[in-house]
Amino acid sequence: MHKAEVFVETDVLAAYLTHNGGKPSVLRTLAAQAMCFTSVQNATECIAAASNENERYHTESVLWGLKVLGFHHKYSLTFGDTYRQLPDARKDLRSSIIAGLCVLSKLPLATYDTDRYAAFDGLAILDAATVQPGDGWNAIQTNIIINGG
After folding, report:
1. In this predicted structure, what is the pLDDT of residue 62?
2. Does the pLDDT at position 1 exceed 70?
3. What domains lie within the chain, and their CATH numbers?
4. What is the pTM of this model?
5. What is the rounded CA–CA span in Å between residue 8 and residue 70?
6. Nearest-angstrom CA–CA distance, 91 and 70
7. Is 125 helix (H, G, I), strand (E, B) or coil?
8. Is 64 helix (H, G, I), strand (E, B) or coil?
9. Paired sense of beta strands 4-8 and 109-111, if any
């Protein structure tokens, strides 16, 4: 059986890195049910946010458990298309790149900031706030919304 797959945005990674225990984090819950992906963009943001060697080590240890996607030059065509579909008031190249990568990779995007990605047609979004400890993939995927669909 093919394991479910999901792309995790920087906000989900940051929430894991600052998680103070108690109930399992969203990233841990997702990782128990699906293969988790992120991008070189997200990984770079997390490493850049580390303020000392200890934080950098913990950030790297999280990234070792994920599949980190790079950018093929042909992806720029899709990234440009996703950027152009945004209204001028919402132009955001970074979000366009992440949304385009998720669409091309056929991965739902797990994020707490669903509004940031609402304008991208065809993007499957999972509101990270809906993920509960102990959720199986069937419960998780019921919260995935496909924009424009």
Report:
1. 92
2. no
3. 4-146 (3.40.50.1010)
4. 0.90
5. 14
6. 22
7. strand
8. helix
9. parallel
pLDDT, tens digit (0-9, with 9 covering 90-100), for 52-109: 999 999 999 999 999 999 888 888 877 887 778 777 766 788 888 899 999 999 999 9
Enumerate the β-bridge partners of residue 36: 6
Q: What's the number of CA atoms in the CB half-sphere (13 Å) around residue 133?
A: 5
- N-to-C CA span, the chain: 27
Q: In what order do the strands lie in the sheet with 109-111?
A: 67-69, 34-39, 4-8, 109-111, 124-127, 144-146
9 in Cβ contact with 113 (< 8 Å): yes
Q: How far apart are CA 6 and CA 50, in angstroms?
A: 24
* Residue whose pair of structure tokens reads 């047609």 in the numeric block: 121
Instruction: Please spell the DSSP secondary structure of 30-57, one letter per residue.
Output: HHHHEEEEEEHHHHHHHHHH--SHHHHH
Share of the chain above pLDDT 70, in %: 97
User: Could you tell me the two tokens for 23?
Assistant: 């109930």
Residue 20, pLDDT score: 81
Q: How many helices and strands in the chain, by DSSP H and E?
A: 7, 6
Cβ atoms < 10 Å from Cβ of 63: 16
Tell me the C-alpha distance between 33 and 84, whole Å.
Answer: 34
